[in-house]
Amino acid sequence: MSPVVIAVCAALLIAAAVITLFRVERGPSMLDRIVALDVLVSALIGSLALVSLWFGRTDLVLVLTVLALVGFVGSVTLARFAAAEPEAESRIITPAEAAERDARARLEDGEL
């Protein structure tokens, strides 16, 4: 691949990482910071792929895969904790409580 193309890609990845670091620091909400961290992991994956391409290192593919999985699991975990959920909906209900809810719903609908 052309060194010019690799240099342009590297410059774009560095710019994306710098802008993303600004968003991580200044982000007005927790969700903005989570998305920025996900973009930062993506920029890191792209940078590592670029290094792998430049030096012809195919052994870095495993590292890229692991980094992608860690980024995905981290994003999903953080999004789960950032989601606003009422206390009553986040708890697991027992079968008796489920039957009681169903019976109450049937009574409201007029079914017997």
From TrEMBL:
Coiled-coil annotated spans: none
Pfam families linked to this entry: MrpF_PhaF (PF04066)
Localization of this protein: Cell membrane
GO terms for MF: sodium:proton antiporter activity
Its membrane topology: Multi-pass membrane protein
Keywords: Cell membrane, Membrane, Transmembrane, Transmembrane helix, Transport
InterPro entries: MrpF/PhaF-like
Entry GO CC: plasma membrane
Keyword hit for Transcription regulation: no
Family designation: Belongs to the CPA3 antiporters (TC 2.A.63) subunit F family.
Protein name (database record): PH regulation protein F
